[in-house]
Each structure stands twice: as structure tokens, then as C-alpha cells.
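Worked example 3 (structure in, sequence out).
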């Protein structure tokens, strides 16, 4: 019984650490000009000029220069 409680505690601490790390990365990403967030994480910034091709919202990420699309969740990929 004690072993199960210990495992549950370790898993909850690991989940909390992962969530806090992702939140911290999200905050840093909004102020950073590093291309690492675009290339490794896929977190692109909102383009300065946005176009519409009749089907999709298009733009160019100002941080990495990649052509990006707007998905249904409002994220650029």
C-alpha cells in the first residue's frame, strides 16, 4: 500500500514539474528572438502580414522566416 502511494506522489510531482516547465518555456518564447522555439518546439509567432488564399490563413513567421498556416485552434504551424 505504501509503495502505491509513493508511486502516485512521484508521478504527481513529475507532472507538476512538466507543467511548470512548459509554462516557463511559453513565457520565455513570447519574449525571445531565438529560432529554437520555431525549429524544435514548432512555436511560431503571429505573422506581421496575413494573407488568405481562399481556404487558409497564411503568413511568414517573423522569428524564423518560415511560411506558416493558421490551424483551427488559432496556432501557427
Amino acid at each position: 500500500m505504501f509503495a502505491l502511494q509513493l508511486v502516485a506522489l512521484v508521478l504527481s510531482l513529475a507532472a507538476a514539474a512538466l507543467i511548470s516547465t512548459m509554462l516557463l518555456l511559453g513565457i520565455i518564447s513570447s519574449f525571445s528572438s531565438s529560432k529554437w522555439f520555431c525549429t524544435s518546439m514548432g512555436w511560431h509567432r503571429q505573422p506581421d502580414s496575413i494573407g488568405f488564399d481562399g481556404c487558409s490563413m497564411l503568413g511568414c513567421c517573423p522569428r524564423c522566416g518560415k511560411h506558416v498556416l493558421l490551424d483551427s485552434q488559432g496556432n501557427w504551424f
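Notes: The CA atoms of residues 6 and 12 lie 10 Å apart. The chain is about 45% helix and 15% strand.
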